[in-house]
Amino acid sequence: MSAKQPSHHGKSGGYRLEKLRQRSLRPRQDAKGGRPRQAGDKNAVVECGWGRLLFSQTFDDLSVLTRILRDERPEQRHIAFYVHEPHVILSHAPQELFLDPSHSFRLDLATYRPGRRRFKGFTVRRLCTVADAEAVNRIYEARGMVRVDPSFYWERRDARLLTHFVAEDEATGTIIGTVMGVDHARAFSDPEHGASLWCLAVDPQAPHPGIGEALVRRLAEHFQARGAAYMDLSVLHDNSQAIALYEKLGFVRVPFFAIKNKNPINEKLFLGPALEEELNPYATIIVDEARRRGIQVAVLDSQAGYFRLTFGGRSVVCRESLTELTTAIAMSRCADKAVTRRLLEQANLRVPAQIDASSDDDIAAFLKRHGAVVVKPANGEQGRGITVDVQTLEDVQEAIARARRHDAHVLIEEFVEGADLRIIVIGYKLVAGAVRKPPFVVGDGTHSIADLIAHQSRRRAAATGGESTIPLDEETRRCVRL
Fold first, then answer.
1. Where are the domain boundaries for CATH 3.40.630.30 in the chain?
2. Is the pLDDT of residue 340 over 70?
3. Could you tell me the fold of the domain covering 116-231?
4. pTM score, whole prediction
């Protein structure tokens, strides 16, 4: 072989790669010169276990793609890939979809050559048992990925549309890595006979180097043997370590995009950097949800919990759940528990019986009639001055004295057993709810009850940014005595 032949071969390989790229990426026009069209099946969607993979180039009507993409159940992650016109798709649902901040890469399987490196300590094989599937889910969880029902793998173990490989530790038999591949020819009769790589994940505790490279190479060689022309993948733009690996293996960037849903799984991808200012938990809940919905947030006073929400040319200043649209009348109605009760009763809602704590005889009769009561100040918040499940007249009088430290007007209500619910209604529609559970401790034979309560209080304070604690006050001592 002459000295010039290797150079000529390299140029030829580069030419074929560039030709392949141009042929694949060039938009194809329909007979009327409209938007790009592709041959093969239309509206191709592949169920992947963790969600649906939508091949955007097979959709003539992007509104159909948008509708399928948005039809996402909880704990799923749909992806629209090979998107040429992301702005068009986003225009159909700008509050629900976002442009994935990932790069797309392609490996030309016509020029790909297997590596000479011998990997030690593990082998790569097909996923073949339910135990393998459960081990893959363990890796997914460790990497913050979506779990897949093990039956999904088992029911499709003989199908050739999806291919799953796992890396197995030779010494322990533990699954330490996984990758999934999609055969485009079987997905939508792809005329270019492409393939794609998905869900490459390595156990963060794996002791062996090269697991990711071995899985990528095994999948590439698998599709190469099937006659696939290329293998594509998507990787986050700032995952420099993975990008370096792919480029070392011969992958090159291609101008495709991916569109995803704004859901809790993808939250870190579309929310952007966290706010520099720290807000209390109540304000943080609202601010985080606003950012998920694409609403601009500006913190005005972090200590007091003031912030501004801006969207579509409109803005509103808020303090936690209150806004500048909240009227003084609404505030006064919510602040006075007697007024609140009457409003609820007028709306034909069941409300507990209630009296003013003014007459000793009335209080005694009320306690005898209901057996247990709740004593509370008429005005107040966050449970201050409230005593629940009071069953003796002596305890009622003590509770009234405590309540009057917060407000001279004290109410006594019948005590009703049941769950304590806090709900949020917007536009006459229930949008959220929470079950409020009282704190409790369990004796361990070593620590005092006071120590256990203090420990639980510290945990609660840490979880709420210091907003909620368990006070060692008269009410806590009374509840412990009960």
1. 116-231
2. yes
3. Aminopeptidase (3.40.630)
4. 0.61
